[in-house]
UniProtKB/TrEMBL annotation:
Gene3D superfamilies: Ribonuclease Inhibitor. SUPFAM superfamilies: RNI-like. It comes from Glomus cerebriforme. This is F-box/LRR-repeat protein 15-like leucin rich repeat domain-containing protein. It comes from the Eukaryota. InterPro entries: FBXL15_LRR (IPR057207), Leu-rich_rpt_Cys-con_subtyp (IPR006553), LRR_dom_sf (IPR032675). Residues 133-313 form the F-box/LRR-repeat protein 15-like leucin rich repeat domain. It holds the Pfam family DUF7885. One of its GO terms (cellular component) is SCF ubiquitin ligase complex. SMART domains: LRR_CC. GO terms for biological process: SCF-dependent proteasomal ubiquitin-dependent protein catabolic process.
Length: 405
């Protein structure tokens, strides 16, 4: 047993090229090397492109690879595979991958052009459903329609995480279908659905998924209102993560109700740049500290707290007992750094702080933006951040970023 564990640990540090040689040593080493090479296939080497590697992978799967080898595959990520003008991916690729890798758990198809209506239809024609896939990432898929999205999800009934960030097939109908067929959903990312998603889709999600839902991302969902949020307060009371950034119609009243209904589980709350919440008040932060003591991540727009007295705000953050990541958006020029440092130091559990600033007048040098320079106002600038990080080697680590970054 110890020998097996030692060998398993050693193979974690062996490069893929060397694993091929290890596989030729003996039967035992062959098994370990095969597991490492096929568990999460890497497409692209120093001598071949990601596209060439993936094409070879598709040829090997049905005709050469042994069943025992194919059973090793648990995750496939084709995000780095890009078609060229003269070289493309076989339209049956999705069906081949799903059918030939029966133990597949994750399928990541992020920002690729070869996920098309035809490839999805061929998957359905091959009846290559997979009851083991738990994560499906379709970020940036531009060629999916509502009908093909409905057909696709029926092949993966055991999904737990689905990521549809900036995906063309996100509509009320497709989300309702996903919620109906995938009863084990725990996390749903519907970011950047813009106006294609309304309260109707969230109603279906809340109705069918209910208590199993642990996280939802509705970034830039312009038509989601408090009605959808209230439906979630009734059916989804075990949420761990919520992201409502850039939502235009959700108000502070709806947000407070959802926070209270998930008071025992909420750990990550992202609420920056919400048009209907121009200001965050002391009662809201007080609610967070009283109802969500386990909160670990908090993101909000810095200019939305200008109405809260400084001493009260500092006192609020001293009450957060588990906050590890703080993200501040739209920090204006000449914001006193001493105030921010006190705010950060009061929250002793913080490990990382991200400050997204606007473009400052002091940045504009010779027609282009540069790093923030020192000013007489002792505001937030790169030098001040560096000094803070150097004087606090044990954290929290502060990062100053432009909003464009």
């Amino acid at each position: 047993m110890r020998h097996d564990l030692a060998l398993h640990s050693i193979f974690n540090y062996v490069k893929p090229r060397d694993l091929y040689n290890c596989a030729l040593a003996n039967v035992e080493w062959n098994q370990y090397a095969t597991l490492k090479l096929w568990r999460i296939p890497k497409f692209g080497t120093s001598s071949t492109t990601a596209l060439q590697s993936f094409q070879s992978f598709l040829k090997v799967l049905p005709h050469i690879a042994r069943e025992q080898t194919r059973l090793c595959v648990i995750s496939i990520d084709v995000s780095k595979v890009q078609e060229t003008l003269y070289d493309t991916v076989d339209e049956s690729w999705l069906g081949i991958v799903v059918l030939q890798c029966p133990n597949l758990r994750e399928l990541i198809i992020r920002d690729v052009s070869f996920l098309s209506t035809i490839s999805i239809r061929k998957l359905c024609y091959m009846k290559a459903s997979n009851n083991f896939i738990e994560k499906l990432d379709l970020t940036g898929a531009k060629s999916i329609t509502e009908s093909t999205m409905k057909s696709l999800v029926q092949n993966f009934p055991e999904l737990k995480r689905i990521i549809l960030d900036n995906c063309s097939g996100v509509t009320d109908g497709s989300i309702s279908q996903i919620a109906y067929f995938c009863h084990n959903l725990e996390y749903v990312d519907l970011a950047n659905s813009r106006s294609s998603l309304t309260d109707v889709g969230i109603f279906a999600l809340a109705k069918f998924v209910k208590q199993r839902l642990r996280g939802i991302d509705l970034t830039a969902s312009m038509k989601i209102t408090d009605n959808a949020i209230i439906a979630m307060t009734t059916h989804c009371t075990k949420l761990v993560s919520m992201n409502f950034s850039h939502c235009a119609l959700i108000t502070i009243q709806g947000l407070e109700k959802l926070v209270i209904s998930n008071k025992d589980t909420l750990e990550h709350l992202i609420i920056h740049n919400m048009k209907s919440i121009p200001a965050l008040t002391y009662p809201f932060f007080d609610l967070l500290t009283n109802y969500c003591p386990q909160l670990a991540t908090l993101s909000f727009t810095f200019t939305s707290i200008t109405d809260i007295k400084i001493n009260l705000l500092i006192d609020i953050f001293s009450k957060f007992q588990h906050l590890r990541e703080l993200i501040l958006y739209c920090v204006p020029e000449h914001t006193p750094n001493l105030f921010l440092w006190k705010l950060i130091e009061k929250c002793e559990t913080l490990k990382e702080v991200k400050i997204y600033r606007t473009s400052y007048e002091s940045d504009f040098i010779l027609g282009g933006y540069a790093k923030v320079i020192e000013t007489e106002y002792e505001g937030i600038n790169q030098q001040a951040v560096n000094n803070f990080n150097n004087s606090h080697p044990n954290g929290p680590k502060i990062n100053l970023l432009l909003l464009e970054e």
